[in-house]
Amino acid sequence: xxxxxxxxxxxxxxxxxxxxxxxxxxxxxxxxxxxxxxxxxxxxxxxxxxxxxxxxxxxxxxxxxxxxxxxxxxxxxxxxxxxxxxxxxxxxxxxxxxxxxxxxxxxxxxxxxxxxxxxxxxxxxxxxxxxxxxxxxxxxxxxxxxxxxxxxxxxxxxxxxxxxxxxxxxxxxxxxxxxxxxxxxxxxxxxxxxxxxxxxxxxxxxxxxxxxxxxxxxxxxxxxxxxxxxxxxxxxxxxxxxxxxxxxxxxxxxxxxxxxxxxxxxxxxxxxxxxxxxxxxxxxxxxxxxxxxxxxxxxxxxxxxxxxxxxxxxxxxxxxxxxxxxxxxxxxxxxxxxxxxxxxxxxxxxxxxxxxxxxxxxxxxxxxxxxxxxxxxxxxxx
Length: 382
Hints:
The chain is of the alpha+beta class. The protein is 38% helix and 18% strand. Strand 5, helix 10 (194-202) and strand 6 form a beta-alpha-beta unit. Helix 2 (17-27) runs antiparallel to helix 7. The longest helix is centred in the last third of the chain and has 23 residues, at 313-335. The mean pLDDT is 87.
C-alpha cells in the first residue's frame, strides 16, 4: 500500500518554510521562546481554521489528541494559555508577510496584466467581545473590527488586507493601500473621496463607483442609449469646481455618469473616469462588486472568523492573517487536483480528513482500508 502523510502535511507543503523562518528572525518572534515556536503557532492556527475549531480549549484538546502526528510536522501541541500569549504578543507581521509571499506564489498564471486587472475594494465587520474595547471601542453596534480587502475577482484572491477598528472610515486604509497602475478599481459609497479618485486617475487607473444623491454634476454631453434596456442614461459630466467649505475639487476633468435600472426598480448613478467603454460594460463591472460580498461570506462561514481566539489587535490580525493563509492553501491545493470541482466541497472534505493519512489529490476516492495487524483475523457477518 502506498504511504501517505497526513492531509495537513500535504497542505503545508505549499508554505515556503525558509521564507517563514526569515520572517521569524526578522521580527524576533522566537527570541527567548521555550515552549511554542512560531512554526507550531502557525500550524496550530491553520489547524484551527481548517478544522473549524472555535475556542482555545478546543484547539488545545484537538491538537493534544493528535500530538504523534504533529511530531512529523515539526510542531508541538500548545497549551491554550501559551497559544493565547503568542497570539497577543508575537508580531502579526510575520503572518502578514507569509500571506504576501504565498499570494505571490499563488498568483502566477491567475493574475492578469495590470491593464486588464479588476480590483474590488470593500470592508466587512466582525464582532468582538467587550474585552477588545480598549482598542476597538464601543459603538451602537457593539464592539467590533473591520477587515478591509482588495480582491482580484478573476483569481478570487485577496491581494491586500488591513484590520482596523470598526470606527475607522473605509477610505482611511484605502488611501494607504498600494495602487496598481492601469488596474480597474470598483468600490461603493464608503470610498467617496474625490482626492483619492484623482490619485487613482493619476496612476492611469480606471475607477467605477456611485454618485451620492447630494452631488450635483455639471452636464457636458448626453449620449444616446438603447430604448427599453437597463441603461436609461449615458452622460459626460464634470464635478463642481468648488466643494463644501470652499475646497477646490481635485478631480477637474470630464467623467462618465451611467444611470442603470436594476431588478428592484432602483436607479443607480454610476460614475467612472472611462469615457470610451460601452455603458453596459461599466454597469457590468460595477455589478461585480457582489463577488467580494460572496468572498466575505465564504471566509466567514467556511474559515470561522466570526469568533476569535484573542482580544488584542495583534491577536485579531494574527488570526485573520492565518485564515487568509488557510484560504490560499485551500485554493492552491484545489488547483493542484482534478477530482473535486467545487472549492466549497473540497474545503469540507479537507475538514473531515485533515489529520487522516491521505493525499488531497484523491479526496473524492474512498479512504484506504486500515492496515491489517499481524495475527489479526478478518471477521465476516453472514
